[in-house]
Amino acid sequence: MSTVTGVVVVTGAAGGMGRPAAVRFAKQGRPLLLCDVNAERLDAAAADLRASGAEVDGLAGDVAAPDFPDRVLTALGGRPIAALIHTAGLSPTMADGQRIFEVNYAATERLVAALRPHMSEGGCAVLISSCSAYMVTAPETVAAVKKLVGGNREAVADLIGTPQMAYPLSKLAVIGLVAREAEAFGKRGARITSIAPGFIDTEMGRAEAKVSEQMVQMIGITPMGRLGTGDEIASVAEFLCSPAASYITGCDIKVDGGILGKLGL
């Protein structure tokens, strides 16, 4: 990535995956635009990075707000985008099904569409999916998500009434979005990928584990025998945005400690 010019945009930049990603790209000497819904935590993250000598701009706001993509472009001030690390999202305990789907998929789709024309040649967008997406196996449900990604907004309307359904469906749709967008990104000489985290030791992950006995059980049988860390996700994002990953696009990368393989998924 050292030859790619432009800003690294990180959403969810004050969170458990976004913040370590910002740290990694700051160490590369990259200018950063950090975005997060929590202004106080965002300011603290930005201040820490500036203290280390990084060039950092901050943008507080809700990624699902209709004007959010335009606000990102305004903050960029015409500068190209070297990388987008889009970690902002909601887990099942954080909102109702409609809100989760709006943040995790619809807002992601809007942001990708707005930023794609501003990607540098050689640049890369990295979205966050989830290992839960692979647990959606009912053929009719998978077909509905494919229709959604194909442009049929109503295809999943009856399927996202609960947070427990909206979350994995939103993440499966993110994987579909990455596959759909690869050609358009490729025409710009850019790439788009996603990362499917397993059980990660973040504030969000810990909150989910407190209310899900099934999740606790699956953590217990994860082949690596432990939770992952936010930096282990950030390290893969850094790799995907590097020249070493120059032929990786349109696909989802599992970073799950082996749990999906264990489950035969």
How would you describe this structure to a colleague?
- This protein is α/β, with parallel strands linked by helices and about 260 residues long.
- It has one domain: Rossmann fold (3-Layer(aba) Sandwich), CATH 3.40.50.
- It is about 45% helix and about 15% strand.
- It is built from ten helices and seven strands.
- It has helices at about 20-25, 40-50, 70-75, 95-115, 140-150, 165-185, 205-210, 215-220, 230-240, 260; strands at about 5-10, 30-35, 55-60, 80-85, 120-130, 190-195, 250-255.
- Helix 4 links the parallel strand 4 (about 80-85) and strand 5.
- Helix 3 (about 70-75) runs parallel beside helix 4 (about 95-115), helix 4 packs parallel to helix 6 and helix 5 (about 140-150) packs across helix 6.
- It is globular.
- The two termini are about 30 Å apart.
Counted up, domains total 1
Rg calculated over all Cα atoms: 17 Å
* Helix amount: 40-55%
Shape: globular
Summed up:
With 265 residues, the chain is α/β, with parallel strands linked by helices. The protein has helices at residues 18-27, 39-51, 68-76, 97-115, 139-149, 163-186, 203-211, 213-221, 230-240, 259-262, and strands at residues 7-11, 32-36, 56-60, 81-86, 119-128, 191-197, 252-255.
